[in-house]
Write a structure and sequence with these properties.
- The protein is α+β, with helices and mostly antiparallel strands.
- Strands 1-2 form a two-stranded antiparallel ribbon. Strands 3-4 form a two-stranded antiparallel ribbon. A two-stranded parallel sheet has the order 5-6.
- A hairpin with a 6-residue loop joins strand 1 and strand 2.
- Helix 1 packs antiparallel against helix 2 and helix 2 packs across helix 3.
- The termini are close together.
- About 15% of the residues are buried.
Length: about 170
């Protein structure tokens, strides 16, 4: 089960402790549930609203769907959807599942704005730069970081890493 992060605000800057079994979506939602906000509104769109309790349940259901589809931890998915309360459900559900999600809702709004202002060329250039940076990041992981890790990490290091991932695999979702 994931744990909450801890912050010591008695010093500046605050000291932050992130546990090995940390999950950002769990932290965000669980903090609000523990604070008594389960039935408070978490998100509102033009047609619906969502409480923290519903966000917890629906994001967990989305995380389970990703798992049933065979989408493993640290895989990347693209969320192509409108900016409604379904977006945080899917985005936080992906994080709960350990999946890396990119949401196109923000890009869509930017695309609309660029289209209306006649700046499509600039938008396309910015999008190309963004996509290129993502590919560079993935290439660096595959060509540099993983080979370095395979070369330098000991069996004990790998056992520690495997244990950390095992803790996160045993989540309640």
């Amino acid at each position: 089960m994931p744990e909450l992060s801890l912050a010591d605000h008695s010093q500046s800057p605050p000291a932050l402790h992130i546990p090995r079994s940390y999950n950002a979506a769990y932290d965000l939602i669980e903090r609000n549930l523990r604070a008594g906000y389960a039935d408070k509104l978490a998100f509102i769109d033009d047609q619906r609203s969502l409480t923290y309790r519903e966000l917890d349940q629906r994001s967990a259901a989305f995380a389970n769907i990703l798992g049933s589809l065979g989408i493993e931890r640290e895989r990347r998915i693209l969320l192509c959807m409108h900016d409604t309360i379904d977006l945080p459900i899917a985005f936080l559900g992906a994080i709960k599942a350990g999946v890396i999600a990119t949401a196109l809702a923000i890009l869509r709004a930017t695309l609309n704005e660029a289209s209306l202002s006649g700046q499509m060329k600039q938008f396309a250039e910015a999008l190309d730069l963004y996509a290129d940076s993502q590919w560079q990041h993935m290439r660096m992981e595959e060509e540099q970081i993983l080979p370095l890790a395979e070369r330098e990490l000991t069996e004990e290091d790998w056992a520690y890493i495997d244990a950390a991932f095992a803790v996160n695999r045993e989540s309640r979702w």
